[in-house]
Amino acid sequence: MDWFDAGDYTLSRLLFTEGLAVVYLCAFLVAVDQFRALLGDDGMLPIRRFLAGRRWQRSPSLFHLHWSDRFYVVVCWTGVGLSVLAVLGLVQRLPLPLCMLAWLVLWGLYLSIVNVGQLWYSFGWESLLLEVGLLAVFVGNTATAPALPTLLLVRWLLFRLEFGAGLIKIRGDPCWRDFTCLDYHHETQPMPGPLSWYFHRLPRPLHRIEVAGNHTTQLIVPFFLFAPQPVAGGAAAIMIVTQLWLVASGNFAWLNWLAIVLGVSVLPDGFWSAVLPIPAPTTAPLWFVVVVAAFAAAVLVLSYRPARNLFSSGQMMNASFEPWHLVNTYGAFGHVTRTRREIVVEGTTDTHPTPESRWVAYEFKGKPGDVRYRPRQFAPYHLRLDWLMWFAAISPDYAAPWFGGFVTRLLLGDHDTLHLLRHNPFPETPPAWVRARVFRYRYSTRDEHRQTGAWWVRTYEADFMPAVSLRQVR
Questions:
Q1: Which helix (H) or strand (E) holds 83?
Q2: Would you give the end-to-end CA distance of the chain in angstroms?
Q3: Are 437 and 464 in contact (CB under 8 A)?
């Protein structure tokens, strides 16, 4: 079955599954590490309350069958354990049916989390991980040749990911068309990294080149993924390099890393032959051929709406068309903010605050706060609270469902909530009052940074939430 066996991609298939396993591992660790404050029974958006008003058909999840904080932890650690086995390559060495089952269980466990995660799981890379994870079920194990139909579906996903992102930009903010978006983006992106200040300070002509490179990679290069080798591999290599540039310039959870994993699958084994041994080609059993062919046909049928969306003037960004997240549409930064605003949350121990009261800020792990604190690299780890704080600074509507609960937990000194922060200024006793204020942030100039050591300069703009006490929020 020469049409089915992609023997030239045996090593690339292995790197694809290993890379996906690492991302799965990160995603499950994030889930278990952050859920109590975000989604637990005492969290800001409790899953139990969500399940009470949602039918299984709208959000398929194991948690419709049973919910408890403890069961959620069991699901997460099961995902961690399976991911570790996959990272070690043990899943791919299982008999083919068991290998497929292991990847299917990973997909099902993470689907169960995403479908009850509400706002905390409303990011495009959640659907992307699920779509990639389902493809891994049908890519084969080490005893079979890689399934060519599945590898082509991986390319189709990579095409939609890149081309969709390119279209949403060129149709959206005019700065993508006049090549000025990168004059702002490195400064205003949701979560800057340790090198973002330097990227922002690049000469403006280089920012124009960045935008031109983005348009080329996302609007032209994806079509070459379906060309013969070595052209397809060259297109994937360009995408991988571009994604590594994005990794260096900011924190976008596992979005860029999944794009790299998809790109690696397009590189033929000959690309790696100088540095890695290439396994001997094998064949696939007939039943696997039939199952993969049926799966590929189903994906092509489900691709109609995402494909139509690509060419729609009302293109949706990061949307799923069914609750299983099987075939989705992607895109990012159709609009680039020109000004960075941050919500600074502060507390005081004064029982009766006055203009002379000392207010001390809570510091977040990823989002800017202390102007002297250099942003850190967290991706592929996903700081969900920090990301929602960025959206809340753009519009208070994003914060309406959860911000009050967040403040209440600060006033209570809730350990799980404080675990999500970098610095708790009240380690002994919770504050008597908490308030939130909006500041405008900009990167310091080279001279300002040299003189003060500050990475940011900030200016107070307005109150986000007036000072409240525990008595008022209860």
A1: helix 69-87
A2: 67
A3: yes
Q: What is the pLDDT of residues 391-446, one digit of tens each?
A: 999 999 999 999 999 999 999 999 999 999 999 999 999 999 999 999 999 999 99
What is the pLDDT, as a whole number, of residue 1? 58
The tokens describing 379, both together, are 């991706």
User: At 76, which amino acid appears?
Assistant: C
The one-letter code for the residue type at 365 is K
When computed from its CA atoms, the radius of gyration of the chain, rounded to whole angstroms, is 24
The torsion angle over the Cα atoms of residues 221, 224, 226 and 232, rounded to 10 degrees, is: -100
- Contacts of residues 100-103 at CB distance under 8 Å and 24 or more positions apart, as own/partner, are 100/137, 100/138, 100/141, 103/133, 103/136, 103/137
333: three-class secondary structure by DSSP: coil
What's residue 2's pLDDT? 64
DSSP string, 211-231: HHHHHIIIIIGGGGGGSPTTH
Number of residues in the chain: 474
Q: What average pLDDT does this structure show over 111-130?
A: 97
Tokens of 238: 């360009």
Sheet with 433-443, strands from edge to edge, namely 360-361, 340-348, 433-443, 456-469
Convert the pLDDT of each residue in 139-163 to its tens digit: 999 999 899 999 999 999 999 999 9
- Which distant-in-sequence residues (6+ apart) come within 8 Å of 173 by Cβ? 181, 333, 334, 335, 336
Distance in angstroms (rounded) separating the CA atoms of residues 315 and 195:
32
Task: State the DSSP string of 133-151.
Answer: HHHHHTS--TTS--BHHHH
Tokens of 11: 């090593």
Reference 268, options 139, 87, 146, 161; nearest CA is 146
- Token pair listed for 284: 């696939």
* CA gap 107, 128 in Å, rounded: 11
Q: Give the number of C-alpha atoms closer than 13 A to the C-alpha of residue 392, restricted to the C-beta side.
A: 27
